[in-house]
Amino acid sequence: MEKLEYQKLIDLRDYLFKFISENKKNLFQKNIENRMRHLTIVLENIYQPHNASAVLRSCDIFGVQDVHIIENDNKYTLSEEVAMGSSKWLNMYKYNQDEENTLSCFQHLREEGYTIVATTPHNNDMLLDELPIDQKTALVFGAEVNGISQLAIDNADAFVKIPMYGFTESFNISVSAALSMFSYTEKLRKSTVHWQLSDVEKLQIQIDWAKASINKSALIVQDFEKNKYSKR
User: Fold this and answer.
1) pTM
2) In a domain, 156, yes or no
3) Domain tally for the chain?
4) How far apart are CA 180 and CA 218, in angstroms?
5) In CATH, what number is assigned to the domain containing residue 59?
6) What's the chain's Rg over C-alpha atoms?
7) Which pLDDT band, with edges at 50, 70 and 90, does 45 fall under?
8) Alpha-carbon distances of 10 from 23, 53, 156, 207, 225, rounded to whole Å
9) Strand ranges for 100-148 from DSSP E
10) 132, part of any domain
């Protein structure tokens, strides 16, 4: 990124910060340091709003910034009562335009350097605590009853499962996602792997957070563009 463009991001972030409270500004600056894209979450065909919302809430809590949503058969809907506003702090990407949205999502993630890891028992699976953290990882979770699709299984790079010792066959998806994120992010934060966001990413995300916190933020951004950069 050119120096002028980078400075423009700093100027815009600082300008937007004038319209939020000092407490929220400090919170943004604190939380951005723990945000990551080294791990991302993929949700395929989730249809129960409370599960979808609970996963987003966990993503925010564990600092996972990006969520990729595959809508093959089911439209992804949220329960704001469960999500508690977490969706506005995350970047969500939906795949619903192609015949095989799962493949479109996987292709995009691979282009971004991710290893696709399906969360399902498989002949070649590994336990959650055995999952490598030295490479960017996309954890894929499937629908509540049937799990991830066969297409996702056939095109995944690896498979992981959470150990279970009771009679119940599986965890609820929101619990499974939370356990997986906790295990992975705790292990990652204690490692020497460089998982932190770049300075540019930090600025871009803080700008998005500020926009989500300000009424009529689009007009404020327009005013910033007009007054600070239109005459350059």
Assistant:
1) 0.91
2) yes
3) 1
4) 36
5) 3.40.1280.10
6) 19
7) confident
8) 19, 32, 39, 9, 13
9) 115-119, 126-127, 137-141
10) yes
